[in-house]
Amino acid sequence: MSFVSVQHLQKGYSGTPVFSDISCDIAKGEFVTLLGPSGCGKSTLLRCIAGLTSVDSGKILLDGQDIVPLSPQKRHIGMVFQSYALFPNMTVEQNVAFGLRMQKVNADDSHRRVQDVLQLVELRDFAGRYPHQLSGGQCQRVALARSLVTRPRLLLLDEPLSALDARIRKHLREQIRQIQRELGLTTIFVTHDQEEALTMSDRIFLMNQGRIVQSGDAETLYTAPVDAFAAGFIGNYNLLDAGKASQLLQRPIHGRIAIRPEAIELSRSGELDALVRSHSLLGNVIRYRIEARGVELVVDVLNRSAHDLYPDGQRLALSIDPAALCEVA
Amino acid sequence: MSRAEAGPASLYHRAVVYLLFAILVLPLLGTFVYSIASSWSATILPAGFTLKWYVQLWSDPRFLMAFGQSLLVCVGALVLSVVLILPLLFVVHYHFPRLDALMNILILLPFAVPPVVSSVGLLQLYGSGPLAMVGTPWILIGCYFTVALPFMYRAITNNLQAINLRDLMDASQLLGASTWQAAILVVLPNLRKGLMVALLLSFSFLFGEFVFANILVGTQYETLQVYLNNMRNSSGHFTSAIVISYFFFVLVLTWAANILNKDKSQ
């Protein structure tokens, strides 16, 4: 039985639907990500679950109980905001203790729980500081500690890493995942960053225009996109219509196909019918723009050594693993 | 060494700052010297110095009454402003953010109508009938409330936008706080600075307000500026002492407010 069950949820503003008839189920202890472009309704869905935005119709069951009629205070849900939403007039310790203060937890117990959770996010030495005296990453860890200390039934993370620089973002996403696993906390994470979604999630719900277009684990979403949107949003798929696909593969293809850039192999031997138009170095990967049989393709090659680098204008042979061809709607 | 301190440009920058400072301070300094001069008419420097004008001023019951009445009217208007505008701002920004555009037009109205024109209108409205308030402090409090509205609204709105009201309210409610608890424990303490700025600006403006006070209440409820106007035919040294006392009071008030407003976290 699922721990969180969203059933036929509808929400709109002034007659314009944000999402309609959304349904999804999340198991206890699962880390799921709502992934999608800006405006797809993922944050609104999260706010509806939190109770911060009303729903037009539908049910949200949390541990079997419909929480739609409940106020945010009574849902026992923790949430971390993109803006951190730390209280500027309170120290780190006071911020973290705020939820316990509202629950009227006695001072000794509150102090112990605050210290424990600050230890968990490695901020015990910063208890006396004010939010403006902390870095972005530290602020977000305080926000996480504040939402964990009340022992919520469900944790919601609304693009918590978007405002941070790449290095801190990477470190923090590992830390969040580790804490979530340690506590076995059911978590819904919202992001528009596919890398974050793929590396952190047990399951991903890919959203577009108020619909969940595909759900599954990272591997499924990455290797088997169901439609052109999924193929375009996850990875850098080459999307070819039937005509181009037939031209490239030199056999009749009747639908649209998607090919992952790393599923295409380049070599100096064989039938040299591909031409390197341009290339760019992405660190451990070299991304080539190739023209082959009149079709433009993006090809990713592992950057093993400078010797392997193909210069622009080089003619190469191209091969595609048939198993890597995905038919998409 | 900072960039501002280096190079010949700094001399020019300093000169501009000192010149501006001199332009602002010199008239005040002149008034102050005049207020402590025993006599200063046909000579470059005063004939002598004395505090008798201040003693005379601060022992004048009419001045003390006018000072107290000014204080009462200003404080009354500001209390009314805080009580009405703060909840209004909270509701506008948290529940109906679209109303902010309308509010921005409304708060400009006190500036759109000149005080002389609006006071004539107020005289017509409140001169007689069931709401006859002309000549009483109540009409000044109401009138000053509208004058303070733009200062209060703008300063607190800027503060509200800076603290990200919506996220703070959402976060506190998810942590179990009621709307009241969130407003009092989280939002209000973070509005302290904006509120203080708004109150200081409004107070300084209202304490020196003359047109409304003179036309709507005049000598029936004499305020400081009306008193100053009525004393214009007495000694210039005496009126200078009034001006300096008024200035000094506002200065001390501003300084005290700044001390109180110091962030303990800084």
From TrEMBL, chain A:
PROSITE patterns: ABC_TRANSPORTER_1, ABC_TRANSPORTER_2. SMART domains: AAA (SM00382). It comes from the Bacteria. GO terms for molecular function: ATP binding; ATP hydrolysis activity; transmembrane transporter activity. SUPFAM superfamilies: MOP-like, P-loop containing nucleoside triphosphate hydrolases. GO terms for cellular component: ATP-binding cassette (ABC) transporter complex. InterPro entries: AAA+_ATPase, ABC_SmlMolc_Importer, ABC_transporter-like_ATP-bd, ABC_transporter-like_CS, Mo/tungstate-bd_C_term_dom, P-loop_NTPase, Transp-assoc_OB_typ2. Residues 4-234 form the ABC transporter domain. Pfam families: ABC_tran, TOBE_2. Keywords: ATP-binding, Nucleotide-binding, Transport. PANTHER family: SPERMIDINE/PUTRESCINE IMPORT ATP-BINDING PROTEIN POTA, SPERMIDINE_PUTRESCINE IMPORT ATP-BINDING PROTEIN POTA. This is ATP-binding cassette domain-containing protein. It comes from Pseudomonas poae.
UniProtKB/TrEMBL annotation, chain B:
One of its GO terms (biological process) is transmembrane transport. One of its GO terms (cellular component) is plasma membrane. Belongs to the binding-protein-dependent transport system permease family. Keywords: Cell inner membrane, Cell membrane, Membrane, Transmembrane, Transmembrane helix, Transport. Gene3D superfamilies: MetI-like (1.10.3720.10). It is a multi-pass membrane protein. Residues 67-257 form the ABC transmembrane type-1 domain. This is ABC transporter permease subunit. Pfam families: BPD_transp_1. The keyword Transferase does not apply. The chain crosses the membrane at residues 12-34, 71-96, 102-126, 138-156, 168-188, 195-217, 237-260. It is found in: Cell inner membrane; Cell membrane.
